[in-house]
Amino acid sequence: MLLRVILIAVAAGVIGTLIGGIIGIIIKKPSKTYISLMFSFAAGAMLGVALFELLPESFEYGGIWAALIGTVFGVGFIFLLDILFKKKKDEVGDALEEHAEAVCAKDSKGKDCKAALATSDKRKLRKMGFVIFIAMALHSIPEGLAIGAGEYLGIGLLLGIVLFLHFVPEGLAIALPMKASGVKVWKILLLCVAAGLPTVLGAIIGYYLGMIEVLLAYALSFAAGAMLYVVLSEMLPTAYSYSRRHRLITALTLAGVLLIVIFTAVL
Fold it and tell me: Residues of the chain with pLDDT > 70: what percent?
């Protein structure tokens, strides 16, 4: 059973992120609409899993307090990560812009200024890619936790499929800025794989926590809280900001939720 959990986590996290990275490398400039539609359907499926699978099961195994406390901690965990990495990304951007401005201030002919600005942009993109990589890697731990704990409910495979849909655009988000900054292809792909590996760690932790009924309740609600925060604060806002086809985005999101509801009803 543990081997099955590990394989599902590898397929979802590692292969999903890797495929996203490959898409980012092959396609010169994926349209924002394409990325938006990927995010919206994956967001709907994750929303459905959190609301109709993870939270109800958490309530059943541990009661209302286990469901609430785990959810709050799951939301708080991702919220703190977002604050940390947003601040880091802003600091990197500000430092590189100041460097470029200083060079331009001393440059009378403009050649060094243009070179400095180009170098600054590439460094900024590269740094942004690495910051996204670290954030994605840490984000994938609670998602792996859901796979490991969900295996005891018979939904480990379902979670793996849903999270695979989530990890593909995440791999794309890592690859695009790094490709634009000139990072070698093999390094980009290696980083995409590395970003997905913590999913396996999370899945193993979730599997062992699931052996104890009360801890299973907290693990499920923690994963649900983390997924809800990612969906509502990152995935859906990104989907709506990347495309004006808001009705289609809403329809795909609802389709993702409905797919999980149907699956839950059938089982």
Answer: 80
Tokens of 228: 């809800």
Question: Which positions ≥6 away from 180 have C-beta within 8 Å?
Answer: 122, 125
The identity of residue 165, as a single letter, is: L
Structure tokens at 69: 């406390």
104, pLDDT greater than 70: no
Q: Which amino acid is at 89?
A: K
Q: Is 109 helix (H, G, I), strand (E, B) or coil?
A: coil
Comparing CA positions, the residue from 63, 71, 47 lying closest to residue 261 is 47
Whose CA is closest to 192, among 142, 134, 235, 239? 134
SS3 181: coil
Q: What is the dihedral of CA 191, 197, 199, 205, to 10 degrees?
A: -150
What mean pLDDT is predicted for residues 91-119? 51
DSSP element (H, E) containing 124: helix 111-150
Please enumerate in sequence order all residues whose Cβ is within 8 A of that of 205, keeping only pairs 6 or more positions apart, or say none: 141, 144, 145, 148, 219
Q: Give the predicted TM-score (pTM) of the model.
A: 0.77
Mean pLDDT of 182-198: 88
pLDDT of residue 96: 45
Q: Give me the helices (H) in 151-235, please.
A: 156-180, 185-196, 198-209, 213-230
Q: What's the Cα-to-Cα distance from 13 to each of 134, 150, 199, 249, rounded to whole Å?
A: 14, 15, 6, 24
Contact 39, 235 (CB under 8 A): yes
Could you tell me the two tokens for 247? 């009705």
Q: Is the pLDDT of residue 119 over 60?
A: no
Q: What is the mean pLDDT of the chain?
A: 81
Asked if residue 137 lies in contact with residue 13, where contact means CB atoms within 8 angstroms, the answer is no
